[in-house]
Amino acid sequence: MNMFTRSVTALALLATLLFVAAGVMLTYEVAARYFFIRPTIWAAELSQACLIWGALIASPWCLRERRHIRITAVISHLPRPARIVADVFAMLAVAVFSAVVLVADAPPGRCWTCRSGSSSLRCPLALQCCWCSR
Length: 134
What we know:
Blueprint: H1 3-34, H2 43-65, H3 72-75, H4 80-104, E1 110-116, E2 124-133
Antiparallel strand pairs: 1-2
Helix pairs in contact: 1-2
């Protein structure tokens, strides 16, 4: 097993832990809110961050294992060469989309500034960082 495969597998395990943590936090929030009438100020926001980061971290494993969402109603009826072309096209579409997002979101001469999360936690979330001019 090479280093890339090990790192993708480790990321998948980390994503699994994030998904489990989100489930535990949301279950705790529901119990606290409806059984004890004492809702938390942190569970919903942190579970949302866990779900978002878990999905992002799990995507390399999903692509490697070809476990991403696929619409096979038409593709399964195509001959093997056409299925290969469709798979290559799908992977190229993901690569082009990723490149466009990277280039469009990273204009030269800009820097990161982060806002805080919700008003309840006021913690910086990297997903809410935005570009600003220097």
